[in-house]
Amino acid sequence: MAVALPFIMIAATVIGGAKQSQMQREQADAAAAEGVAAQNAANYEAAQLDQRAGQERASAQRAAIESRRQERVVQSNLQAASAASGGGAIDPTVGRLASDIAVEGQYRALSDLYQGEDRAVGLEQQANAKRYEGDIGYTSGLVRQRAGQQAAQASIISSVGQGASLYSKYG
Predict the structure, then answer these.
(1) How far apart are CA 57 and CA 64, in angstroms?
(2) 72-106 pLDDT, tens per residue?
(3) What is the CA radius of gyration of the chain?
(4) Which of 20, 21, 58, 86 is least enclosed, having the fewest CB within 10 Å?
(5) What is the pTM of this model?
(6) Please, which residues have CB within 8 angstroms of residue 47's CB and are 6 or more apart in sequence?
(7) How far is CA 153 from its chain centroid?
(8) What share of the chain in percent tops pLDDT 70?
């Protein structure tokens, strides 16, 4: 039994190192999977933000169309009122009013488009930031995986060295 004890100690040291190495490799793989999951989550959020940006643009276009429609209604009312009052479309006041209404309608339509584009660009910038976060998470996972793999290799080497030391001392 006394002869077997040093070999049992050596075996236990090497097996313990191997188990520790295995756990470190599993942690390393989990870190890599965590990085991939972070990137996937960020890309999903970015896609949602991109979709909202498109919706903002479409909503702004609809608002601009509505502003132009309202301008046409006001122009029509102006023509009807000027005709009912006995004035004509060539009256200078009616012409100035029609011009002012057209300018205001154009301004409102362009403002609607600008505001929608501004909101959309903001959402796209958020989407790009999310993608960047995902890339950093992915890279971080890979770095932690490599570090874990190196730690696992170091554990094996260390346990073999400890086993060799025990063997030289007791073997």
Answers:
(1) 10
(2) 999 999 988 888 887 666 788 888 999 999 999 99
(3) 37
(4) 86
(5) 0.73
(6) 127
(7) 35
(8) 92
| Cα–Cα–Cα angle for 101, 99, 90, rounded to 5 degrees | 120
- Per-residue pLDDT tens digits for 10-39: 777 778 888 888 888 888 888 899 999 999
**How far is C-alpha 149 from the geometric centre of its chain's CA atoms?**
29
Handedness of CA 21, 27, 28, 33 (dihedral sign): positive
Q: Can you tell me which residue has the tokens 């000027």?
A: 82
> Which residue type sits at 119?
R
> Is residue 1 within 8 Å of residue 118, measured between CB atoms?
no
Please write down the HEC assignment for all residues of the chain.
CCCHHHHHHHHHHHHHHHHHHHHHHHHHHHHHHHHHHHHHHHHHHHHHHHHHHHHHHHHHHHHHHHHHHHHHHHHHHHHHHHHHCCCCCCCHHHHHHHHHHHHHHHHHHHHHHHHHHHHHHHHHHHHHHHHHHHHHHHHHHHHHHHHHHHHHHHHHHHHHHHHHHHHHHHC
Spell out the residues 6+ positions from residue 1 whose beta carbon is closer than 8 angstroms to its own. Answer: none
